[in-house]
Amino acid sequence: MSKSVKDLMNEKSSRQKSLQFTEKAMPLFFLVCAIISILTTFGIVFTLAKETFTFFGEVPILEFLTGKEWYPFFKNDPSFGILPLLSGTFLIAGVAMLVAVPLGLSSAIYLSEYATERTRKIVKPVLEVLAGVPTVVYGLFALTFVTPLLQTVIPNLPIFNALSPGIVVGIMIIPQITSLSEEAMGAVPNAMREGALALGATRLEVALKVILPGSLSGIISSVVLGISRAVGETMIVSTAAGSTPKFTLDVTESIQTMTSYIVQVSMGDATYGSTIYYSIYAVGMTLFLFTLLMNLLANYMSRRFREEY
């Protein structure tokens, strides 16, 4: 027996009330999620700042920023100069970008300008599998495969060095640079490609002289974010770079980065409440500020070049 008109009207009214409740409740739910994210960020910054100020109450900030020796475990005369950790961090990031930027941009150009749709559907997911490999696996790969391979070329290369983990960190961030750059290149209007080809340009000239300048904002953002990722990498450098804080730019020496020092102390090498314990917060704050500046730089460069092109 068919429903009466009254029953149908009641069902319609019930659905409308349900939709109205959903429309009113969902914005509140989204607002709560946003507030939780913001409060979490403030909580992290507050914790870092609080413990960092405690550390600087015991160690002068000038000594921390300008000291060239980092020996916090010396009982009689500890040194807390962060420059060795900074040089090790930048050394790893520099080697990584020398590997990741050429390979990442080349892969992005191929996927955007040369690969067929079928090839792109195969190559891009396979390339992005690299992003899903655990970093501890990358660390073991650097220690047990890349370093012995490099030792055949550099016989005196120690087992722990900056070159091997730097190369592997670069391999790790290739998918990030490739993916973001390829998306930026794909956003360039096809009319620019067709116009350049109509004027007699080759596909390589179109890629290098038209597509790259037109997508420069996205490419720069991907490179800067790649640098931030390289600076913040932990397990690869902890496994393969060693734990020797040295103020050096020699890639063949054992070094220590900011992240690997935090890992070392966090595994129980320092008692709670000691100067060494608070030092990990000072190093963490330094790492946080550098990453924040890199992200702000990426946003600035992206806006600037987007306006030009």
UniProtKB/TrEMBL annotation:
InterPro entries: MetI-like (IPR000515), MetI-like_sf (IPR035906), Phosphate_PstC (IPR011864). Residues 86-298 form the ABC transmembrane type-1 domain. Pfam families: BPD_transp_1 (PF00528). PROSITE patterns: ABC_TM1. One of its GO terms (biological process) is phosphate ion transport. One of its GO terms (molecular function) is phosphate transmembrane transporter activity. It is a multi-pass membrane protein. The keyword Protein biosynthesis does not apply. The chain crosses the membrane at residues 25-49, 80-105, 126-150, 162-185, 206-227, 276-298. GO terms for cellular component: plasma membrane. The keyword Secreted does not apply. It is found in: Cell membrane; Membrane. Keywords: Cell membrane, Membrane, Phosphate transport, Transmembrane, Transmembrane helix, Transport. Gene3D superfamilies: MetI-like. CDD domains: TM_PBP2 (cd06261). Belongs to the binding-protein-dependent transport system permease family. CysTW subfamily. Part of the binding-protein-dependent transport system for phosphate; probably responsible for the translocation of the substrate across the membrane. This is Phosphate transport system permease protein. It comes from Trichococcus pasteurii.
